[in-house]
Every structure is written in C-alpha cells, then in structure tokens.
Amino acid sequence: MPPTLYLIDGHALAYRTYFALSGPAGGNADRWLTKAGEPTAGVYGFASVLLRLLDQETPDYLAVAFDTGKTFRDQLFKEYKGTRAKMPDDLRAQIERIRQLVDSFNIPRLEVEGFEADDVLGSVARQASALGLGVKIITGDRDLLQLVDERIVVSLAGSKLSESRDFTPEDVKAYLGVRPEQVVDYKALVGDTSDNIPGVPGVGEKTALSLLETYPTLDEIYAHLAELPNRVRTKLETGRDLAELSRKLATIVTDVKVSLDLDQARTSVFEPAAVESMFRELEFRSLMDRLHAVEKKLQPHEAPQQLSLMGEEITRVGIPAPAALTVHIVNTPEALSELSDALKATSIIAFDTESTSIDPLRADLVGISLAVHTGEAYYIPVGHHRQPQGQLTIEAIASDKPEEAQLPLQTVLDALRGPFTDPKIGKVGHNLKYDALMLSCYGLTPTPLTFDTMLAEWLVDPASRNLGLKNLAWVRLGREMTHIEALIGKGKNQRSMADVDIAEVAPYAAADAETVLALMPTMQKELTSHHADRLLQELEMPLVSILASMEEHGIALDVPFFRKFGNELRQRMGELENQIYELAGGAFNINSTQQLSAVLFERLRLEPPDRRKRTASGHFSTSADVLDELRGKHPVVDAVLEYRELAKLKSTYVDALPEQINPRDGRVHTSYNQTGSVTGRLASQDPNLQNIPTRTDLGRQVRQGFVADPGNVLLSVDYSQIELRIVAHMAGDEAMLAAFRAGQDIHATTAAAIYGVSLDQVTREQRRHAKAINFGLIYGMSSFGLSRSTDLTLGEAENFVKAYFERFPGVKSYLDGMRRQAATQGYVETLLGRRRYFPGL
After folding, report:
1. Taking the complete model, does pTM exceed 0.70, yes or no?
2. I want to staple 27 with a disulfide (CB 3.0 to 4.6 A). Which of 23, 259, 360, 470 is the partner?
3. What are 283-319's pLDDT values in tens digits?
C-alpha cells in the first residue's frame, strides 16, 4: 500500500465531537468546564479523535483544514448556509483552542482566505493523489463524497463518533444512488437543505436519480430536455439558473493555491511535551495514558522551532520534572522506632492506607504510608501475602529476604497510637474518612483530622472533575502519579494489593501521603480566595469523624421481616401478572419496554401522551412519567404501575438490603459521601439509606425492617418546615416571618392568604396546594410544574403563583436577587458561605 495522507475537516469534526459529548442541544455542556469556567467538550472530543487516529491507524502524514470565514460562495448566494443554526457560543470559543491543540501536536494547519475547508481539503487531496499517495479525509460533511476515487477515501462520522464509515466509490453509489463524480450534479437538482442550496424546485430525489441514471451529467440532462416528459422538462427549464447556481455552490474547488510540506506533515514530528502542557491546562487528565501510548508508538523526536503554514510561530512548552521522592520502607523495629520519634516531633502527619477492598469495613489492611514534610515519605507493610507463615513476631521477621519483611500489625498500631491521637498533631490526607475508618476498624482512631485535600478541592469547585488525588495532583502540581491499575491490573486479571510486592507498593503508597503535603499550600490559598477555609475547618472537617463513626456503627436489620415481606410482595406480583395478562388480552413480558409498548399503543390502541417520545428502538416510551399520564385511561395501566412499584420495592430494598449485611458484625453499613453533590447535600450509597420509600403504605413498611439493638430505640427527629424558616430569614419576608413567630401552620397560612379565606376555613385540598407551592417555588418550580404536581389547571397555577408572590413579596425579591447575583458574579452562597458556581452564566 502507498503511504497515506490523513486530512481532517477541522470545523466539521469540532461540531461532531462537541455535540457528541454535550448532547443534541448542548444540554450537557456544563459538564465540560475547567475550574476556570472554560468550555472544553469540543476540544476534548477533537483531541480524543486525534489520539485514536494516531494510535490505531498510524497515518504516515496528517494535516487539518479549517474554515476562515466568508467565501466566494457567500458572494454568489447571500442565503448560502442561511438555514444553519448559529454556532453555540461555547463552541465558538473552543475553535481557537482546537487550532492551538493542532499546533501543539505539530500538525500542519491548512487555511486559505475566501475558501472553505472543503476546498482546501479537495485541493490538497488531489495534489497528494497525483504524487501517488493514498488519501483519507475525516469529516462529518457529505459534500466531500464528491472527492472519492480510487486513491481518495472519505471517512464520514455517524451519529456516534465510534460509528464512522469509510466510503469508496462503490460505497458512495450504494449510499447516495450516484457515483462520486455525479454528487455535484445530484445536488444541483435536489439542492441541500443543510447548506441552503436551492436546487431545482419540484425535482426530488427519485426524479434526480432517474435522470442521472440515463444522462450522467447535468449538462447531458439539459442537452436532452426534448426527450423528457413535459412535467419534468418544465421544471428543469424554469429552474435552469438555480441548477447552475446550485452546481457552483456544491462544487468543491480542487485548484486552490495551497501546498503541503509532507516532511512537516509526518506524524513522527510530534512533541508530546507541548501536548501534555495543553492537556494539563485544559484538565484532560483522562487522555494522558493515551497520549503516552501514542508517544511510545510514534517514538517522536525533538524538532527545531517551526512555523505553521499560516506563518505563526509555534511555542513549545516543556513539562517540569517531578521532584524526587525519598521512600523509606519501615519493616524493622529500629526503623519503626525512628519513625515514631519523627511523628512525635512534628505538627502535622499526612497518612494513607493500602487495603484489599474499597469498602473499609470489609477490607484487610495491607500497609500504611506517612509523610511529615515534602520530598520524603514512609511505608509500613503489614498485610502483604508474602510474609512468613505462622505467628509473626519481631524476632520472626524474615532475614533471608529483608525486602519482604513486615512488622506485626499490633506492634505498628502501638507505635503510631501516641502521635495519631495527640491533639497537638494534625492528621491530614485525601478522602480521609476512608483511611480513618480503615484504622479505626483495627482499634486506632486518628484525631484530630484537620485537612482533607479532596474536600478542599470540592469546596473550591463543587463540580470539579479532579476530586481524585491523581487528577488533582496532575492539575494543581503537574505531577504524573502512578495509577493503581499499574499495580493490581483491572478486569478479570485484577489482583489484590496484598499480592503485590512490597517494593512496588511502597513508592506508590508513599507518593499518596507525600502529595497531600505538597498540595496543601495550594489548596489552602484557593480556599482562602474562595472564602471557604472557615467552612472546611468548622463544618466539613468535624463532620468527617462523625460520618466515619456513623458508618462504622451501621444499622441492624430484621431479616425474618424482610423474608416474610418479600414473599408477600412476590405473591401480590403474581396476582398482578395474571390480572395484567387478562386485561391485555394475552401474556407478554411486563418488564420488556418494547413488548409493553406494543400492548399499550398497538394492541389496546391507547394514545401516547407525546408521540415524539420514542425509545432507541423506535417504540413509544413506557417510562414512569408516560404511564403516569395514562393513569385511568385503561385498567391495565394502573395494574402495570402497581406491578412496577412492587418490583422496584422488592429488588431495590426487600431483597437487596439483607444481602448488604456485613458478615463481620451482622449489620448494614452505608457510606456517606460528602462530595456527592454540588449543593453540599450528603449522599448515602452502597446501600442508599436516604431514599427508603415513604409515599405509599407498602413503601413505609420497608422502614419496619430497620431495628434498634436490645435496650435501645430508633429516634426520628424532624425540624418542622426547616427550608421555609430559612427562606423567611434569608429573604426577610415580614409576612412569612410573622406567621412563624405566631406559631401558625405556614401551609395553612399560605392557603388562607391565597384563597382569601380565614385560617379555620382552609380545606385539606387547599393546604396541599399551598404546600406544593411553598416548597416548589423556592426550588424554582414554574406554573407549569405546579400544574403537573397538583390537579390545578395551568391557568389556576399561574394565578396561584401570582397571588403567592403578592402575599410574600420578600420571597419574590429574594429569588430574583439570587438570579441576578448568579448572572453578575457567577455564584450564589449559603448563610455559611458555601458557594454554588455557575460558570456558564
């Protein structure tokens, strides 16, 4: 095969990657923001595609073409591309970044004023083809299919980036019905709505294909007008000028004065240092391993300072080498004694644990790493499997293989207990709760816990994608740390950390502890600048120990109750199955969304609430909200909803919770995630004990399965209407404050004010509506949302909202002020100073 030149359509690929990552309408774009608020979805996707090409397809030569603005086509036809949606603002800001990315890869950028990227690609492709090279064009634009020939292949992106397809001349014919050289004539006849190319009015795809099958070109068609049926001939005669214009607009120019230096386009002329510098700036930590793989495959060399084809100097930025880390393996009594003395003499200890599981209450301790100042750290192995057999004592430390020696765990814990419980020595770490809980399970509870770099990063940027230590060190310090998979592998080949040699684990573990100390000055400065240092010290850090204690204690389950309840649910589900089959006119898989859709909308002919709501398979959706709207339209819908509720209840709670019991103590232990939301709300997981159902009688029965130890009781505590009390205080709304001070039921008070009745005349229904709006409006509910959550009409809901804000003008002023504050300063904050950032505003 001849050497191949890969040409990338820069703008087309940027569009594809942007929408692939941010969603069809850019709805997920906020997920792709750096901590500085820079949007990166398009840049990340573009970089990912570049790395895939370099790694998997290893092109000999590579170049990227970009549009430059207005072209000769805009002069020919002012409405050219006039129907295209405006480029999203956050993507527009990324195009220049993508140009910089291309430069950092040392890939030639091809741009010519007055011409589109298509024209530049077409011209370079023809030049390369004439030199005997193979050419592959990466694009999402079907226009480029006209360039396909025996040497030029076009790779067209599908609906997903991974679904790209290569087109040869035969593929183009099968796809469009015409040969590549006929694509322009085809578009001259039918037009192109995506580019607003008019074509011939009244001539559709079938007519155009039929004409081009008989007469191979547009000129041939017009040369044989007399042979065509009157109806077609009239359209062609009337639209001849538009056909000629459309052909000019659709034709890719292949003689643009542009040349490509093939030596510069070699993919081996590649400087990973420049790319890595940019990846760090854009926080693309997840692409680093792929970059290193490409670096190894291409074996790049240092190139002299070069100019891009546009005459701009490309700056190469080196990556600073990480500071050397001295690692001490503590596996002798003497080394442990020296470490104990060093710990007692310091004011701060960074520590981390290595274990056999991510669940600290089921894990075995493998080792402990510590650091008291940067550049040096210690690793104490205690649970590696290569230790001597039998009872381990200090005298029994293996002498024939000192690198595999370990100290007895209790000896280590006794040596650490003094400094680890000294109130004058702060204990710091990353995700401290896990490591504190790990040691606590062995009888050593570290205190005080004074700094957690994960919590610090989260307070500085609640939406941060760098909460992991490896990512955080890379972004904040430029450190490339070893990933755990490098030691234990992944998937079916994964092994326990206890099976890894001590010599391999020691530098990995030691770096985890020492990096925390290296990060602290940076993170403390960030906390101060974001006014979050007090929040960390007075709320989040004290909470770590409390949550660790709660997790360790766990909760007991009444297993016989869950077993009995599960049998009752199974019996009721069986009854519902038979009822559903009878109502539906036959048996089917109730859990199959496709089969249920066919039963509801085809067999029973129910009208879908929204005919646009379809699944990927093309069937009408049967999601919970769809079935909820269909409630009452047919008895089978209500039966299916009940069946689903019972199935979820059974699988998620009744069957699953007993399986979560820890065999060590017979209790269930959830994990409380402090960083699980951008609002500061705690998240319970594995299992989730925050979402135990309460809305239905059956759901509330699940709570009966949680029991107290003998001699104890479970206490349920609720602060009445806490959110509204806080709103009243923050908004300074006198009417709402007066109601609370008078001890009134705020929902009844609201209903009385809005309905214009006295408090004693408020009905249960009126109070329910008032409660919905009291809680809904402070969380941004609209009139439409209120109508959906109650039985109010949209008009009634709108009047309700209007009356509510007239009654409580302070709340309205407060909510409006929050919106203005978010837009002007980019964040809002709570009474304690917790900030929620909105970089997209």
Report:
1. yes
2. 23
3. 888 898 889 888 888 764 444 333 232 233 322 222 3
